[in-house]
Fold this sequence. Notes:
single chain; 121 residues; mainly beta; seven-stranded mixed β-sheet; four-stranded antiparallel β-sheet; 11 strands; 49% strand; globular
Amino acid sequence: ELDLVESGGGLVQAGGSLRLSCVASRFTFSGYYVGWFRQAPGKERERVVCTPSEGGLPVYAGSVKGRFTISEDNAKRTIYLQMNNLKPDDTAVYSCVATSRYGCRPPYDYSGQGTQVTVSS
């Protein structure tokens, strides 16, 4: 059984929106830093956003600031990533993590396998 399961990826045209979900199967996010990362083919893994669970100020990558929003539903043990005004450069595999380390630094306590987001021009 996977610790974190992402969903919501898909193919979307530039300017469109997607909402990714990350569900924790065996624990709650309370007390962890939670975040989203992405990796595109041939590129380094990039931290999209990291935030303390249950409050705190999210820190977004400059490339997504103002377009992406992280949120949390504790009752559903789910983290969301709302992505608006998507661009072709946003194409990547998106994965979520939960970690006790500040700034969502590795190694991660929990991570998922990712969901593919493809943005067409």
